[in-house]
Write a structure and sequence with these properties.
Elements (H helix, E strand, L loop, with lengths): L3 E5 L2 H13 L21 E5 L4 H6 L5 E2 L4 H8 L5 E5 L2 H8 L11 E5 L5 E6 L6 H12 L2 E3 L3 H4 L15 E5 L1 H9 L4 E5 L16 E3 L15 E5 L14 E5 L3 E7 L5 H14 L7 E7 L6 H10 L3 E4 L1 H4 L9 H7 L5 H9 L4 E8 L8 E7 L10 E6 L10 H9 L2 E5 H6 L9 E5 L4 H14 L2 E6 L8 H11 L8 E5 L4 H9 E2 L5 E5 L7 H13 L3 E5 L9 H10 L7 E6 L7 E6 L12 E5 L5 E3 L2 E3 L9 H11 L2
Parallel strand pairs: 1-2, 1-4, 2-3, 4-5, 6-7, 9-10, 9-11, 11-12, 13-14, 14-15, 18-21, 18-22, 19-20, 19-21, 23-30, 24-25
Antiparallel strand pairs: 5-6, 8-12, 13-17, 16-17, 25-28, 26-27, 26-28, 29-30
Helix pairs in contact: 5-13, 8-9, 15-16, 18-19
The structure holds S-adenosyl-L-homocysteine.
């Protein structure tokens, strides 16, 4: 199934939507989807056109599907098959088309409308829970159209209240969600009582947010404006009176681990009944259940497995030896005689939750008419189970300005739950970030911490974007993340990794001065922090001798000043002192400075850590302020050249 359908009825609309269809699959990654085979991923956006547009679509080299009914009949048939629809049609027409199909914002798909002039992308419907706002931002970036989001929380730079817990796998519970959302829209104070789950989302709110956390102390009450809505974040199932003046709603982080023991052949219905009974009697939300834990012997218990599949709960199995080490309130000698551990349900619940205290001690449940007997105990984990497969997106953000980031990289940044990178680079891409995203900037020296943090969050289930300037795999974070994954026995698939290339400093520098990299070239970093200096010296000598054009990264810092002198002297031994040299500093940033000089004179200009140095080869020349390395076309006879051209296929 394709998650997104792009639909148009006109040739102009087709041209407008074409870039979306070309940029898949990476252009519009799906959030939280298990996508371990991403390298072979099917297209995630499908273009649907009316029959009259086939010729035009083929001319544009697009893959497409044709709907041969009326558009309204097509939509009716495909409404539930797609997570979102991007229309290039008049918004009025779209409103009329979708009106009969809309049900509820919890189930409606995302609807985005793009105008034919490709000026705007409007999030029309399903903005929050349908993912429409996020899709609109991605479409806006890919089409270079202005995204229009009219949701109230967006204007306030706040995460939408009804999608707040989605990244962490929280389940949206019962309550007056409409009442709470309208209080948010009015910018009224909202009280948050969080009893479980991560508080990461709280740490990334804008300074002037509207939330009040917890209940104020009695003496402080007068200092607080009274809240206009309340949100509980808790494993407890609360029942709110529909007549209450204060609208209330609840999120349930999945923190409860059920320990289950049962007789062989116990009915699925009995296990389900026992679990529901334990939850209801203890005011625990079924939505807060993370999963089930039991003895390894029970790993093939049919009724249990059927129930797990139906509920989409994971199963953790432990052997008797590990369960008998757990201290439990109700050990049993009979159980020990049967399965070599005095406790199954209680011990398994505690072990799965990583806790030392149960919230529900074991109960044995039987029911007339149902086969078997079930024991249930429940323990609460500190960290919620997200139920998601994490993804690591290693992203090159180019040299500086947003215009130099690839559309696929932009879409991946918008899509991420978490963005991690060096603070300066985060600042450079800030306009791409959206409310509710967790953004963690770390100082330049903390690359390892950045990589570890990203891996931890992805292992937990989040989609994490790790950003590096330029290309992420050229003296960037990609290698470090891969090295650390490898060091921790990564299976190559979970978390799933995708690398998004970026324009590296050497390409940016080359573009600014002409075409210095037209022949064989190499990059050498002069930083000896991770590479021994003798190794760097050898590479410099070899590159100089073998007549490579060379791009020097990290040429000089405040304390490391002699490496660049060695490099220059090394090249002088093999090249003319007049060999062109480009000093490109802060490329595509406001303080950009480009200097075209020579080997002989390069030290009469400043060089620092923000500079990339390009040294030409023996045939490089400068011409009227441009740096050109000939490939040799003009040196050959016309005949030889045309033959060569055929061979090399430019
Ligand atoms: N991953 C980056 C390189 C990071 S190493 C890339 O692919 O471009 C850091 C070095 O890159 C700096 O010392 C400098 O030599 C070079 N560099 C990075 N961004 C630059 C920019 N905007 N202008 C000039 N040089 C840059």
């Amino acid at each position: 199934m394709s998650p997104i359908a792009a639909i148009t009825t006109t040739p102009l609309g087709l041209r407008c939507l074409a870039p979306l269809c070309e940029s898949s699959p990476e252009g519009l990654p799906r959030n939280g989807e298990r996508n371990v085979k991403h390298r072979k991923a099917a297209r995630t956006i499908q273009l649907w056109i009316s029959p009259g547009l086939q010729h035009e679509a083929a001319n544009l080299n697009l893959s497409y599907c044709v709907y041969d009914t009326s558009l309204s009949a097509f939509l009716q048939a495909h409404w539930r098959k797609y997570e979102g629809f991007v229309f290039c049609l008049a918004s009025g027409a779209v409103v009329r088309l979708i009106a009969p199909l809309l049900t509820d914002k919890t189930v409606d798909p995302a609807i985005v409308v793009v105008d034919q002039a490709r000026k705007v992308a409007i999030s029309l419907c399903g903005g929050h829970q349908g993912g429409g706002d996020r899709l609109t931002l991605q479409v806006g970036q890919l089409l270079e159209a202005q995204p229009i989001l009219t949701g109230a929380a967006n204007g306030l730079e706040l995460p939408a209240i009804d999608t707040l817990g989605k990244p962490f796998g929280w389940k949206q519970g019962t309550g007056d969600w409409l009442g709470v959302s309208s209080a948010v829209a009015k910018q009224a104070p909202i009280q948050i009582i969080q009893e479980a789950g991560t508080d990461l989302w709280q740490k990334h709110l804008p300074k002037s947010h509207i939330f009040q956390f917890g209940f104020p102390e009695f003496k402080d009450r007068n200092d607080f404006p009274s809240p206009q809505a309340r949100i509980w974040i808790s494993p407890i199932q609360r029942t709110f009176s529909p007549d209450a003046a204060l609208p209330k709603a609840q999120w349930h982080p999945r923190v409860l681990w059920l320990g289950i023991g049962c007789e062989r052949g116990t009915d699925k219905a009995l296990i389900a009944y026992a679990i529901e009974k334990a939850c209801v009697e203890n005011h625990l939300a079924m939505d807060a259940i993370a999963g089930v834990a039991t003895l390894s012997l029970k790993a093939d218990e049919v009724g249990l497995l059927e129930l797990l599949q139906e509920k989409n709960w994971p199963l953790k199995c432990f052997d008797a030896d590990s369960l008998k080490k757990i201290d439990v309130p109700n050990p049993s000698e009979i159980v020990e005689q049967a399965v070599q551990t005095p406790s199954v349900a209680e011990a398994a619940a505690l072990k799965a939750a990583g806790s030392s205290q149960l919230c529900v001690q074991k109960h044995i449940v039987k029911q007339p008419g149902l086969t078997g007997a079930v024991t249930v105990a429940i323990a609460q984990a500190q960290t919620e189970y997200t139920g998601r497969h994490g993804q690591l997106h290693l992203i090159g953000t180019g040299p500086g300005s947003l215009s130099q980031i690839t559309p696929a990289a932009k879409a991946a940044i918008i899509n991420a739950d978490v963005v991690i990178g060096y603070t300066l680079y985060i600042d450079l891409i800030r306009p791409l970030l959206r409310p509710g995203q967790i953004v963690e900037g770390l100082p330049i020296t903390q690359e390892r911490q950045r990589a570890e943090r990203a891996i931890d969050l992805a292992r937990w289930g989040l989609t994490v974007a790790v950003i590096s300037s330029g290309d992420c795999g050229i003296y960037g974070m990609a290698g470090l993340v891969f090295e650390q994954l490898r060091a921790t026995d990564w299976n190559g698939e979970v978390p799933a990794v995708q690398v998004f290339p970026g324009v590296s400093a050497l390409q940016s520098a080359a573009a600014k001065v002409g075409a210095p990299l037209m022949h064989d070239f190499c990059a050498i970093s002069l930083s000896d922090l991770l590479t021994p200096w003798p190794v760097i010296q050898n590479r410099l000598r070899a590159a100089a001798e073998a007549d490579f054009t060379v791009a020097l990264y990290n040429p000089k810092s405040k304390t490391r000043t002699q490496q660049i002198v060695f490099a220059r002297d090394c090249f002088l031994q093999h090249r003319d002192p007049k060999t062109p040299v480009a000093l490109a500093r802060s490329l595509y940033r406001p303080d950009e400075r480009i200097t075209l000089t020579t080997l002989q004179e390069m030290f009469t200009h400043p060089i620092d850590m923000l500079t990339t140095v390009i040294i030409g080869n023996r045939s490089s020349q400068s011409h009227k302020g441009w740096f050109i390395t000939p490939r040799g076309y003009l040196q050959d006879s016309v005949e030889a050249r045309s033959q060569k051209t055929n061979e090399e296929s430019l």
